[in-house]
Design a protein that fits this description.
Strand content of chain B: 5-15%
Number of helices of chain B: 5
Helix content of chain A: over 70%
Radius of gyration of chain A: 19 Å
Structural class of chain B: mainly alpha
Largest sheet of chain A: none
Largest interface: A-B, 16 and 18 residues
Radius of gyration of chain B: 11 Å
Largest sheet of chain B: 2 strands, antiparallel
Order of helices and strands of chain B: EHHHHHE
Oligomer: heterodimer
Structural class of chain A: mainly alpha
Strand content of chain A: under 5%
Strand order of the largest sheet of chain B: 1-2
Number of strands of chain A: 0
Helix content of chain B: 55-70%
Chain lengths: ~140, ~60
């Protein structure tokens, strides 16, 4: 049976993540609408371009707060492992991309690729670790 | 690092869930320590030792002794 630990810190982390992602979606759609339909210009355009990234910065802070608040060291280590997997994936990807661009002029990654790859690998690492560390029925 | 956690727990007829609750960690953590997939930090090792009324080296061994 897959027995996911449900520490207090994980519950708080999930709540903060849901709230942050909801705010992120609102900001992204709001900024997109403002740029495409309200045709904002000047400094307001720069504000619209930057505002969605604030939610992403908050998401990183949420992860940091979780690491600080988690008292179960084994569960915390799993989160750290996932972050390391995500970081390794994006550093590797960006290195390959940079060399490709440097030598061939091709291989530029589309916008947000690094961001998406990080969180996808992070999530995959979480799932793999949960499966590897699943516990059977209690003895 | 080898340990006698599972044997000590069995002697007391404690479940993993009970031990996890006493140690204030998840059952997953207890299972990982028992199966040798995770070596606890020194503070957690001391906590385990205190709970079982033993010294750390009576529960954990590094295989070099």
């Amino acid at each position: 049976m897959l027995c996911e630990p449900n520490t207090k810190a994980i519950k708080v982390y999930r709540q903060r993540t849901v709230v942050t992602m909801t705010v992120y979606l609102v900001l992204v759609f709001g900024a997109t609408w403002a740029v495409r339909h309200a045709h904002v210009k000047g400094w307001l355009l720069y504000v619209c371009a930057v505002v969605p990234s604030l939610a992403i910065l908050r998401l990183l802070q949420v992860v940091g707060l979780y690491l600080k608040e988690e008292t179960d060291e084994f569960v915390r280590r799993q989160m750290v492992n996932s972050i390391l997997w995500g970081t390794a994936a994006v550093l590797g990807l960006s290195a390959v991309s940079d060399f490709l661009r440097g030598y061939t002029g091709k291989g530029e990654l589309p916008g947000f690729t690094i961001f998406l790859v990080f969180w996808m690998v992070f999530a995959l690492a979480q799932v793999v670790q949960q499966l590897r560390n699943r516990v059977a029925a209690d003895e | 690092m080898n340990n006698r956690l599972k044997a000590l727990r069995a002697e007391r007829e404690w479940s993993q869930a009970f031990l996890a609750e006493r140690l204030e960690v998840s059952r997953q953590s207890v299972n990982a320590i028992e199966t040798g997939r995770y070596d606890p930090s020194l503070p957690l090792a001391f906590k385990i030792a205190r709970l079982f009324g033993k010294r750390i080296e009576e529960i954990f061994e590094d295989g070099e002794g």
